[in-house]
Amino acid sequence: MDPIVVIGAGQAGASAVTELREQGYAGPVTLIGAEPHLPYERPPLSKGYLLGQDPLEKAFIHPQDWYAAHDVTLLLGEPVVGIDRAQSSVHTAHGSVSYAGLLLATGSRPRRLALADGSGVPTAYLRTIEDSDRIKAALVPGRRVVVIGAGWIGLEVAAAARQADCEVTVFEMAQLPLLRVLGPRVATVFADLHRSHGVDLRLDTRVTREDLAGAQLVVVGVGVEPVLDLADGAGLAVDNGVLVDAALRTTDPRIVAAGDIANHDHPLLGRVRVEHWDTAIEQGKHAARTLLGEVEDYERLPYFFTDQYDLGMEYVGHGSADDEVVIEGDVEGLTFRALWLRDGIVTAGMHVNDWDAIDDIRAAVGKPRT
Fold first, then answer.
1. What pLDDT, on a 0 to 100 scale, did the predictor assign at position 200?
2. Is 33 exposed, middle or buried (0-12, 13-18, 19+ CB in 10 A)?
3. Domains in the chain, ordered, with CATH?
């Protein structure tokens, strides 16, 4: 049977090879990853693992013996240096692998901040197991931690640092944390949450070198960028990600893309690139089926979640800060639901600590509010 190669041994890549075998594909499968670790989930790196609540093994998608038992060739710690589409081959520093079908799942990398890197203060980004280990080791009671960026990663790190009894200051250029995603009403909930737990939250401000003086750790969370070197070098169409059609095919029909790098022509949302765990899982599965000839639109709505202190949240859809927001429940008590509406249509929904809500929310998105 024709060989399938997956570049990127993260959530999307591991989900894809799992789906290939579950669909009954018996041909050669090779999974290539730049990191030396078995494929793992990234959410624990800023949640349970960072907090010291969960062992590292819990983050691994499969144990080592699963890959051998399912005849998946693992090439770990082996960065891909190029793709030769004419020869249908993938090149690493140590050799080449031929493919009939290829999945790109190269993920994303943190955006660097020169101010922090050149500050002389220990500076960390959070993307890998090593990053999480470094931050966790630095979260010692009484230490001063500065977090730059009040996005999901920044706020989760801030929460972990406060739970470790560190002094925490968060700098954010927007007027509220998560403002572009949630809009002012819901974003205020997260601002109040962190301040109530002792975080010095400095909003609508740009961090300076003087702000970092005296810090013992700086954590930068100012977003990520898709890793497009291979796709671009192979001549595939790229624009804020690898351009893929509704079925996740690139401009080369033998090559699909999934996860953080996929700029997807979503049948409901239009062009969208989603940097979340659930999308990596489900797009990885869908891309595998596309390689096997099951060409259908990927229609699943984006989903993500966060855990910060005693707040747990799940979100479905793709709303905008400009959308109308309808909130039901006890906001002050941190048990509520929120829906985002545009022209009477629900674009997104979320709940906070309302664990029976997610199915209703998922069913509501994309429909008129009833």
1. 98
2. buried
3. 4-109+224-291 (3.50.50.60), 112-220 (3.50.50.60), 310-364 (3.30.390.30)
Distances 135 to 161, 166, 174, 221 between C-alpha atoms, Å: 9, 12, 25, 13
Name, in order, each residue with C-beta under 8 angstroms of 31's C-beta and a sequence gap of 6 or more: 6, 9, 13, 14, 17, 39, 67, 72, 73, 74, 75
CA 240 → CA 80, 261, 317, distances in Å? 21, 8, 20
* Strand-pair partners of 352: 313, 336
pTM: 0.95
Measured from the Cβ of residue 195, the count of other Cβ atoms closer than 10 Å reads 12
Q: State the average pLDDT over residues 188-192.
A: 98
- Report the Cα 191 to chain-centroid distance in Å: 22
Judged against a pLDDT cut of 80, whether residue 268 lies above it is answered with yes
DSSP conformation class of 56: G
Torsion of CA 12, 17, 19, 24, to 10 degrees: 170
